[in-house]
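Researcher: We're teaching a course module on how sequence relates to structure. For the next exercise, students receive a sequence and then see the predicted structure as C-alpha cells, so they can try to spot secondary structure elements on their own. Here is the exercise chain.
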Amino acid sequence: MTYVGERLEVRDAIDQLEAILRDVAEELAGWRARALKAEAEVKAGGGGKVAAPKPPTGDSEAENKVLRQRVEAARARVHELLQRLTFLEEQANEQVKGNGK
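Model: And here is the predicted structure for the students to work with:
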C-alpha cells in the first residue's frame, strides 16, 4: 500500500517535470520562429542565393549564451526529476512486493 505522502511526492515531481517540458517547448518554439524568420530574410534578400552569414553581434552572442545556459539548467533539472521519479517508482515496487509476501 502506498502512502498519501508518496503519491503527493510523485505528483509534485511529475508536475515539475511537466512545467520544465513546457518551458523547453516554449524555448524551442522561439528558436524555431527565429530560424524561420532568418530563412525568410535570406530568401527575400538574396533572390534564392544564399547570403554570406553576418558576423555575430555582441547582443546575439550574449543571448545565445543565456539560452544555452537555460537549456542546460533545464536539462539538469529534468535529469534530477527523472532520478527522483525512478527512486520513487522503485520504492513503490518494493512496497508492492513486500505486501505480496
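Model: If you want an answer key for the exercise: The chain has a mean pLDDT of 80. The two ends are 13 Å apart (CA to CA).
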